Amino acid sequence: MVYVLDGNGAFGLATQTARMLQMQAGGLPPLLVVGVGYRFDPAGDAGVQHGAGRSLDFRPSVDTHSLERTRAAFAALGDTTPVEHGGADAFLAFIEQDLKPPDDQTLAGMSLGGLFALHALVTAPTAFRRMIAVSPALWWDDGVIFRGEAALAERVDDLAVDLWGSAVWRRKTERRTGRFQTWRGWMRRSDRDAIPASG
């Protein structure tokens, strides 16, 4: 089973990708794709509502400066949708306790959803067997995810989790697999433009 965050937009892409990978020799086994998305008020702006939902659910901490900027942007649009940060632990608890059965699971997210996937990894490392973090927002709250990773490294030596990730920085892409530590070293490079683009 694969749980795809931002299910309103990413579910179709995820299911089609799974189908294509299953058609290859030795490809994916049969699986169920679950899109985790948001219900929208038809009278409001779906994009704003989606942004507010993921702003709360995917961010593990509150960044006051970012929160003030987002609220100001919504106000400039005349939208009164409430915006909050720091609900990642509650969202993870919902997924673990209410949504998923205890089984061999995968969690996939991109951008803030990728940040949430990594937050799930460092706060509940046994919740999922596999994690996919596509261009995760590692910059969030001055790299708070790296502090979480450091705390996890103090508690455990190894994880029974497969992590796949990709990151995009200044229009250059490099894929990294394996340990989360690899990302830490890569993202802290002082000359990010020196990162080679992958084909």
Give the proportion of residues in helices.
Answer: 40-55%
Following the backbone from N to C, one meets helices and strands in this order, namely EHEHHHEHEHEEH
Mean pLDDT: 79
Q: For the record, give the distance between the C-alpha atoms at the N and C termini, rounded to a whole number.
A: 30 Å
Low-confidence stretches: 169-199
Q: What is the CA-based Rg, rounded?
A: 17 Å
| Strand arrangement, major sheet | 2-1-3-4-5-6
The percent range for strand residues is 15-25%
Task: Kindly report the name of the CATH homologous superfamily of the largest domain.
Answer: Alpha/Beta hydrolase fold, catalytic domain
Shape: globular
Largest sheet composition: 6 strands, mixed
Number of domains: 2
CATH topology term of the largest domain: Rossmann fold
- Separate helix tally: 7
Second-tier CATH architecture of the largest domain: 3-Layer(aba) Sandwich
The count of DSSP E runs of length 2 or more, i.e. the number of strands, is: 6
Give structural notes.
45% of the residues lie in helices and 16% in strands. It has 199 residues and is α/β, with parallel strands linked by helices. Residues 169-199 have low confidence and may be disordered. It has 7 helices and 6 strands; from the N terminus they run βαβαααβαβαββα. The chain has helices at 7-23, 46-57, 64-76, 88-99, 112-123, 140-155, 180-187; strands at residues 2-5, 33-36, 106-110, 130-134, 162-169, 172-177. The chain has 2 domains: 9-38, no CATH class; 50-194, 3-Layer(aba) Sandwich (Rossmann fold), CATH 3.40.50.1820. The protein has a 6-stranded mixed sheet. Helix 5 (112-123) packs parallel to helix 6 (140-155).
